Amino acid sequence: MFFKVLSQDSSSNARVCEVVTSHGTFRTPAFMPVGTNGTVKAIEQRELEEAGAEIILSNTYHLYLRPGTDVLSKAGGLHRFMNWNKPILTDSGGFQIFSLSGLRKVSSEGVEFRSHHDGTLHRFTPEDVIKIQRVIGSDIVMVLDECVENPSEHMRVRESIKLTADWAKRSREEFDRSDEIYGFKQYIFGIIQGSVYKDLRKISAEQICEIGFDGYAIGGLAVGEENPVMYDIVSFTSEFMPCDKPRYLMGVGTPEDLLNCIEAGIDMFDCVMPTRNARNGTLFTSRGKLRLRNLENKFNFNSPDEETESYANNFSVAYLRHLFMSNEILGAQLATIHNISFYLKLMRDAREAISENRFAAFKKEFLNKYNSNNQN
């Protein structure tokens, strides 16, 4: 992976970077739409490209269960299977297994879990997860890590970061001794854990960085802690992450989250929020959230948000509301196109502001408008 810092904001750690993969280049700050099952829900691949998506995220756990590695192997990998020719990052499935709670058992060797589909028993070791991602053929591979509950006791988290470091080392070793299957280069990111404890975040960062990866992620946040705590941990942890490698914050978040964490030096983000909110009838706009089902939108014949270039602006808020009230699939599709377009525009605007050394002013202006004019 060729990684280069293109611009650095003088008043913060915000930066614009370029990442080159075998399936194309993307610039950061970058938001990755979440395509868990090899599809970003309610939006076509063509529409993703039209919205400006340069990289998407999919998930090892879900793809392993459905369609399965046998199908992906015969298809020639996920890119061909889903007809997406741009970069793909695959999450290792650690967070999904964490979410299974009573259906999983963690040991030093790996994780035993029962499928949320049919209850069948499965086992992931760090080596297994790398092998599966080789078959998937993602451009960026994530190591298996342990994400603990919040809150968790200090001792519990200390044990967890040791396990995460052990798994990261085994993942790196498996990655190094295995080969790409489809003839293009893959890259591997390590994950820093440590919950809300700064001393453990520092230890975890040092352990993971010592192993050596192509990029580094902050995991285990946005799991119930207050936003100021999350921002503080992100800012603190990023100080121990190499400047010459991509920095990725997993599973975050709102527009405010993104801007605050860009300010702390984070390059890459993913979150289901824009697509999930869209399917539930909530749009993100430059004036805040717009809840389509609200009665006052029944006669709102304005476009959702003229500041966001989106196909959904060809329709009125009243029509979009009608689609949701009538349970029409088109409503979810148009809302998803809009929200993805909004998030990707926010990233483009942030990159432009950083390049012009005015990120602080951009962030203040955006949030003032977004928060003070929150609709409905």
Describe the structure.
The chain is an alpha/beta fold. It folds into two domains: 2-271, TIM Barrel (Alpha-Beta Barrel), CATH 3.20.20; 280-360, no CATH class. Helices cover 42% and strands 18% of the residues. It has 14 helices and 16 strands. The chain has helices at 45-51, 60-65, 69-75, 78-82, 94-99, 126-136, 154-177, 198-211, 227-238, 255-263, 273-279, 317-325, 329-355, 359-372, and strands spanning 2-8, 15-21, 24-28, 30-32, 56-59, 88-91, 104-106, 111-114, 121-124, 140-142, 187-192, 215-218, 247-249, 268-270, 282-285, 288-291. The chain has an eight-stranded parallel β-sheet with strand order 4-14-13-12-11-10-6-5. The longest helix is centred in the C-terminal third of the chain and has 27 residues, at 329-355. The termini are far apart.
Concise synopsis of the structure shown:
By secondary structure, the chain is an alpha/beta fold. It contains 14 helices and 16 strands. Strand 15 and strand 16 form a beta hairpin.
List keywords for this structure.
3-stranded antiparallel beta sheet, 376 residues, 2 domains, 14 helices, alpha/beta, 16 strands, 18% strand
Detail the poorly predicted runs.
Answer: none
| Mean pLDDT across every amino acid position | 96
Distance between the termini: 45 Å
CATH fold annotation of the largest domain: TIM Barrel
Main pleated sheet: 8 strands, parallel
Q: How many β strands by DSSP?
A: 16
- Based on the structure given, which CATH architecture of the largest domain is correct? Alpha-Beta Barrel
What class would the helix/strand composition place it in? alpha/beta
What order do the SSEs take from the amino end to the carboxyl end, as H and E?
A: EEEEHEHHHEHEEEHEHEHEHEHEHEEHHH
- Count of the separate structural domains: 2
Q: Provide the β-strand percentage band.
A: 15-25%
Q: Assign an overall shape.
A: globular
- Fraction of residues in helices? 40-55%
The CATH homology group name of the largest domain = Queuine tRNA-ribosyltransferase-like
The total of helices stands at 14
